[in-house]
């Protein structure tokens, strides 16, 4: 997917490609975490539609449960009884040539929100200068949550949407040069 950013000689080059794609689709906040022989990049928690499309700003970056946009008695009663859920996602890109498995731990939405502020603000030079190898893989981990006014946020596991759909609906798939 990153062919338009070739040649990728270092992990820093791949990070540059990730940043370019992220920023072109509105993801300006990120946080870095070191992983064996690479890094993880976490995005800001964003509010999405049930189909995976990003909400329009400012709702996109709000963690508030959705509110009624237009008041009507029938909408108010329905909201009280069936509270429409809000959907949220965090994308974590893991770049490494070391195979890994996800832990069985299920993060909470509160933990996912803290990933943005808990990591490093830039990719350290020692990681950026690591040579890109043919075995380097960039894996997108998608964490999708749902919340209604009547209950706590919950991780959707499994998500009704696959990772490809999330990446397409966010605009990232095209930004990174992926084919449909």
Plain-language structure description:
- This protein has 6 helices and 6 strands.
- It has 180 residues and is an alpha+beta fold.
- It has one domain (3-62, 82-175).
- Strands 1, 2, 3, 4, 5 and 6 form a 6-stranded antiparallel sheet that branches.
- A hairpin with a 2-residue loop joins β5 and β6.
- The termini are close together.
- Residues 79-83 have low confidence and may be disordered.
Provide the fold topology.
Layout: H1 11-24, E1 30-35, E2 38-43, E3 46-48, H2 73-82, E4 86-96, H3 109-118, H4 125-128, E5 137-148, E6 151-155, H5 163-170, H6 172-175
Antiparallel strand pairs: 1-2, 2-4, 3-4, 4-5, 5-6
Q: Which terms would index this structure?
A:
180 residues, alpha+beta, 6-stranded antiparallel beta sheet, 6 helices
Name the average pLDDT: 86
| N-to-C series of helices and strands | HEEEHEHHEEHH
Taking all Cα atoms into account, the compactness measure Rg is 18 Å
Low-pLDDT parts are: 79-83
The total of beta strands comes to 6
